[in-house]
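User: Teach me something about this protein's shape.
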Amino acid sequence: TVAELDSALAQAKAQGQPVMLDFYADWCTSCLEMEHATFADPQVQARLKGGVLLQADVTVNTADDRALLQRFKL
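Assistant: First, the predicted structure itself:
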């Protein structure tokens, strides 16, 4: 949810941790490729270590999902 995302972002900021926010949808071919190839790559995993990894699943495309996408200009 947006509230959970805002809370996670605030917590990461307070701890000085970088954040990687991944937008995902079951129908998104690029998302599936990123999940199975990019994020599975050991070099990518090593670079993301120590950061806060968040995933926003916008598969259903609810009003909240669309608002979140708009918030991040996606």
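Now, about its shape. The mean pLDDT is 93. Helices lie at 2-14, 29-38, 42-48, 63-71. If you'd like, I can walk through any region in more detail.
User: That's plenty for now, thanks!
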